[in-house]
Amino acid sequence: MFMALLSEAVVLTAGEGSRLRGSNKTFLKPFVPVLGRPLISYALDALTRAGIKTVHFVVGYERERMIAQIRQLIPSGVSASFIENRDWQKQNGISLLAATGHIGAPFLLAMSDHLFDDAIVDCLLANLDPGFLNIAIDRKLNSIFDLDDAMKVQTRGDRVTGIGKYLREFDAIDTGLFVCPLEIFDYLERAKSASRRSDCSLADGVRLMAGDGKVRAIDVGESWWQDVDTPQMLQQAEKALTNCRGSWQLALQSDAK
């Protein structure tokens, strides 16, 4: 029953992406080419294959250009809505808060600058539980590219006990994919209210929710993902995707025999 309710996704696309594009302001981060395709198109494909019917894009930086380019990529059978975050220069928690009132049921949350295997989405959707926030985590710490920059997660069993980029003790990494109950908005409001600058990150809200025992860690196992936040990460992503394509081709050739 709960799984049938999950047909909506939120994709955060409001940021400037300056670490990837540098001084070049002519391109938008979600559309940087990855093996000849826009970065965001990979996430859209994965969401579509997972059965998502409506995608809410939170936009901010270069809003009109962003909307026009995203519209060209919307797959058949998927409807898109665009939610403006006027405070897009603040942290990503404010971007998600902009979606308050636009969604009426639990939803999948994805970052526009992350690449990930379909299996990660499948795993999240197979472990749904009302009232809990599911976060896809990677325990393969030795395989993480730029571990210092990654969002660290501390777990106890399948429960998240801590999250933050500067955690000293951690046993997993946040992959940037979540299934969120509507209650996440209340926790983000609490985090925002506690800030002197009326600002908060997504991690701030998740941390508060974890403090109440409401965040579950879903291990991605051997599945692959990559944050694309810098030119070096982009190179790593293209290398990994090229290797994946090679493996798929070999598998297809083997099946043909």
How would you describe the overall organization of this protein?
This protein has helices at 2-5, 18-21, 39-49, 63-71, 92-97, 118-125, 184-193, 202-211, 231-256, and strands spanning 8-12, 33-34, 37-38, 54-59, 79-84, 107-111, 114-116, 133-138, 152-156, 159-164, 172-180, 215-219, 225-227. It is of the alpha/beta class. Strands 1, 4, 5, 6, 8, 9, 10, 11 and 12 form a nine-stranded mixed β-sheet that branches. Strands 2-3 form a two-stranded antiparallel ribbon.
Rough outline: globular
How helical, in percent, are the residues? 25-40%
What is the straight-line distance between the termini? 42 Å
Helices, by number, come to: 9
Strand segment count: 13
Strand content: 15-25%
Structural class label: alpha/beta
* Largest β sheet strand count, sense and barrel closure: 9 strands, mixed
Mean pLDDT: 91
